[in-house]
Design goal:
The chain has about 220 residues and is an alpha/beta fold. It has one domain. The strands form 2 sheets. The protein has an 8-stranded mixed beta sheet, with helices on both faces. A 3-stranded mixed beta sheet has the order 3-2-4, with no helix packed on it. Helix 4 runs parallel beside helix 5. The protein is globular and about 45 Å long.
């Protein structure tokens, strides 16, 4: 669940910037485990985020403290899409996901198993769909009093140029209609050399900033907030 630790500074930044509950939309969700990021516990030197009794305990992944937050982060809607989604409740999915863990990364297995256990209790909704078609339909649904966060991790390289262009156009178009009580954020963790870059763009305004850099599996995470 290292990618959730990498994305955490971005989610916290959106919550702090707007003080609104979140609507999260993930592209390339696979089994949807990242959609449950707020149900996991994150701990570092002198700080913690998330429910203390969570089955998923992520400790020491973030080397510097993420943005301070003054209240509980409320995710009131979550949904993802994938061309070939996996069912986290299916035992075969557990086998398939465990088989993707590198042989020298065995420390990633326990958090993965715990996240799959959380997904049994809180199945993340993931639609089988083309990312751009799906996002277009979601962004036409205006959400007032809610901050919409479109996010993805290690997806960009799997999209062709046409999909990348359309995705940017969809986000910019929806961003032009965003307001202070209906903001839009685009959060992504994507390759940027030795470390991945966690970048956040927010509308209104279209401001872009790098909120963290991280290993490709999440560790280490260096929050830049």
């Amino acid at each position: 669940m290292g990618r959730c630790a990498a994305l955490l500074p971005g989610f916290l930044a959106v919550a702090n910037d707007y003080g609104l509950p979140l609507r999260i939309l993930e592209l390339g969700s696979s089994a949807g485990l990242n959609l449950n990021w707020d149900r996991y516990r994150y701990e570092g030197n002198g700080w913690d985020v998330g429910p203390g009794d969570s089955q998923v305990q992520i400790s020491g992944a973030i080397e510097s403290a993420p943005p301070a937050h003054s209240s509980e982060i409320l995710v009131i809607e979550r949904r993802g899409c994938d061309a070939t989604p996996l069912d986290p409740v299916d035992p075969d999915t557990r086998v398939a996901l465990r088989s993707c863990v590198w042989a020298d990364h065995l420390q990633r297995l326990d958090p993965l198993d715990a996240a799959l256990d959380v997904a049994r209790e809180h199945p993340p909704p993931v639609d089988r769909a083309d990312a751009c078609d799906w996002l277009e339909s979601k962004l036409t649904q205006r959400a007032h009093g809610i901050a919409t966060v479109v996010f993805h991790s290690i997806l960009w390289q799997y999209l062709d140029d046409a999909h990348r262009t359309r995705l940017r156009t969809l986000l910019a178009g929806a961003g032009s209609e965003a307001s202070a009580d209906s903001p839009l954020a685009w959060l992504r963790m994507e390759p940027a050399g030795e470390l991945a870059s966690v970048t956040l763009t927010t509308w209104p305004g279209g401001d872009e900033r790098v909120v963290a850099r991280s290993g490709y599996h999440g560790r280490p995470v260096r929050s830049l907030q």
